Amino acid sequence: MLFHNKYTISIGRLAVMLDSQNYALIKRIRIPLPERMIMKAYNKLMDEVNEALNKTALEREIETGILRLKLYNKAFVLYPALLKTAKLTWDAEHLKIIEEITGYKLEKLEDREILIAEIDRLQAKYRELVSEKKSEGGVSFSELIISTEIILDREISRDILLYEFANYTHKATEKLQAMEHLNDR
C-alpha cells in the first residue's frame, strides 16, 4: 500500500498534513509520485476522515467557542478557587466537594500538588487551544484533538490511528450530549 488510510495514519501525522497542507505526507514510502495520484489519495483519505468523524456536537461546540469558555472557567476560575479552599480549610465537607468536582481525593497537604498539576495542565491546554489557527472550513483537526482531550480529561497520544481516534470523538460527543441533557433539566 502506497498511501495512508484511516487504519494506517496517526492523528499526529494527519494534523501536521492538514495544518501544513503538505499532501505528500499521505505517502507511506518515500518515492516520487505524480501530483494527481497524491491528490486522489488525499481526497480519498479526506472522505474517510469525514466518514469517521462526521460533524459532531463536539465540532459544533468548538465552532461556537463554548468549549473554549468552559475550559477557561475551569482552568482559571474554578480549579484555582478550589485550590484556595483547600489551602484555607481542611474540613470534610469542603474536601468532599473538591473531590466531587475534580475527582481528586485530598487527604494530606501534599495531595494539593495533584490539584496544582491539574490546573497547570488545563491552563496549558487552554493556551494551546487559543493559539491554534482556525482553518477556512471551521474547526482545525488539531483543535478537534485538543478539545477531545479536554472533554475526556485525558491525554491522547498523537501516535494513535485515525480510526481509533474516532472512538474518542464519539465518546466526547456522547459526554457533551449527556452534559447538555443534564443542563436541560
Q: Percent helix among the residues?
A: 55-70%
Based on secondary structure, the structural category is: mainly alpha
Distance between the termini: 51 Å
What are the segments in which pLDDT stays under 50 over at least 5 consecutive residues? none
Secondary-structure element series? HHHHHHHH
Specify the biggest β-sheet: none
- Counting DSSP E segments of at least 2 residues, the number of strands comes to 0
Question: Could you describe the 3D structure shown?
Answer:
Helices cover 68% and strands 0% of the residues. The chain contains eight helices and no strands. It has helices at 11-20, 35-53, 57-64, 66-88, 92-102, 112-131, 141-152, 162-184.
Short description:
With 185 residues, the chain is mostly helical.
Keywords:
single chain, 185 residues, mainly alpha
List strands and helices in order, with pairings:
Blueprint: H1 11-20, H2 35-53, H3 57-64, H4 66-88, H5 92-102, H6 112-131, H7 141-152, H8 162-184
Helix pairs in contact: 4-5, 4-6, 6-7, 7-8
